[in-house]
Amino acid sequence: MTHKIINGIKQLQEYLLEVGLARAVLALPAPRMLSLPSPTGEGSEPASVFARLIVEQEIFDVSSDLFMSGHYNLSVAEAYKAVDKYIGSRVPHLKNSGTNLMEQVFSPTSPLLKWTERGTSSQIDEQKGYHRLFAGAMLGIRNPTTHEFGWIEEPEQALELIVFAQHLLRKAKAAHDIEVVNK
Length: 183
Description:
Elements: H1 2-18, H2 46-53, H3 57-68, H4 72-90, H5 98-105, E1 113-114, H6 121-147, H7 155-174, E2 176-177, H8 178-182
Antiparallel strand pairs: 1-2
Helix pairs in contact: 2-7, 3-4, 4-5, 4-6, 4-7, 5-6
């Protein structure tokens, strides 16, 4: 009975989001383990998956309404702008944005933000790899979605890219300023 009521509430929330009467989904208690439905099952619609997967507020706030209303290209662009803005806020003395900002901030040789001491080859590889991922995301995803109309037209592709933006944002949140790691 309770499960039916919760599903009914979720369906109402999704409907309200789709028709533009709501700006966010009410937070219901999260399950202990995320269980995604089968691709053909009930609840597999991209809007439903978006609502379950995108939990970082910075990304959800700027992309959910756009995604739910079918503006997939804009929803992706806004998600990556949110990542860019967050990283820029971590290094306010830099005035760059996009690829140039990521190149400076996550530089493999002199990073401003890093995750480890870079003392082992795996730690060095992590810095180098994420440096490329952050810069590449700005160059290959943010720039085209910002400067071109209809670059992303399919909800599944938009969802994949927004999930990746969320991963990058989480990774950026976990990074330490250079002084913090060296202490």
